[in-house]
Amino acid sequence: MEEILLGKQLVPSIICGLLCFISAVYSIDLSSPKYVQKGGKFMLACEVTGLGVHLWYKDGKPIVPNSVNKFHLESDSPSYSSEKSNYFTIMRLLVDDADSIHTGEYKCNSDGRYSQHVVVVTENMIETNEDYPGVGKILTPGEPLVLQCNTSECPHCTVVWFKDGKPLHSIQDHLEIHENNSITINHASYNDSGVYVCAIDRKQLDVALNATIVVQSKIKLEKFVASSVVVDGSPLEIYCNAKAAPPPYIRWFIGEQEIFDDDKRVKLLDHDGLKRGKLLIEEANFDDRNHYTCEAYNQLDSVNTTIFIRVKDKLAALWPFLGICAEVGILCSIIFVYERRKSMNQCDEPDTDLPADNKQRDQIRTGQDVRQRK
């Protein structure tokens, strides 16, 4: 009994001899399996010649349709071909809800020469190398980043890569796409973060199967100094410098109280591309003396830093200056009085305090005066 899988030369009215999966039609290629997605539909058809009972076989066992295996059988009425001088019949095997039990090798008639291997693939057939399932891959700036997609149910399938919805291509000395369905990013940076998608090449598998790897990094937060001082009535500005990929979310606390965007006095502004990265109080007062905390967080990490703000009086710097001026004035007064008294004392001193030489000269002058009077 001769049998022909669809794809052989048949009468044009006999479905053109093709193998159909879902709504698509494929030329027969017995060298590789055909894939159908779980829950989808597929149909196998072949032409058998001769009269009699013809059966479908899966993995060498006859197929008996029931509610468990969900197989459906159809066949046309036998027709006579004058060219072949024999009757021929088109047999069809249909599955409306494909599942893993439908993976196998199919033949029409056990001794048929032609068979077709069918593989039912699941939506999650692609396995990724995520560091944390459902969270993604952690990027460390400056170090290599490797992303991998394994297609165990379709070992001969290759994938195409996308980043943030755009096709990904190799970049010399930076990004390499390998044949084993992986990519390597040398010296990764924050710019390499994003949503990566590996999808089965539609030339190999006519179903849309893909997997997503979210690449992000832990947070690097610049710590605040322990404390700082602001003058009463002047602006109070605090900057939260946090880096991560993607940019982290920011929360602010004054003491134990969280600050929200609708606060009337405290404004939360964007800073350096970071949403709510700056806290601003336009006119600080003594009530603003407190601990201020910035918390940065994402799916992977949560870090915070705190600073204590002191508020001083506007004239606080004037009082020390006035004190210094008073001290200088008092010191100058003391020096002036001391010098004045010293000079007065020198004027009131007697001649006995004169040196011995001066006394002798005065005595000689006095003797001369006495002789002249005689």
From TrEMBL:
Biased composition (Basic and acidic residues): 356-374
Domain of life of the source: Eukaryota
Molecular function, one GO term: cell-cell adhesion mediator activity
Transmembrane segments: 317-338
UniProt keyword terms in alphabetical order: Immunoglobulin domain, Membrane, Transmembrane, Transmembrane helix
Region (Disordered): 346-374
GO cellular component, one term: plasma membrane
InterPro entries to which the protein is assigned, alphabetical: Ig-like_dom, Ig-like_dom_sf, Ig-like_fold, Ig_I-set, Ig_sub, Ig_sub2
Residues of the Ig-like domain: 142-208, 217-306
Record PROSITE patterns: IG_LIKE
GO biological process: axon guidance; dendrite self-avoidance; homophilic cell adhesion via plasma membrane adhesion molecules
Key word Iron-sulfur present: no
The protein's name: Ig-like domain-containing protein
Organism of provenance: Larinioides sclopetarius
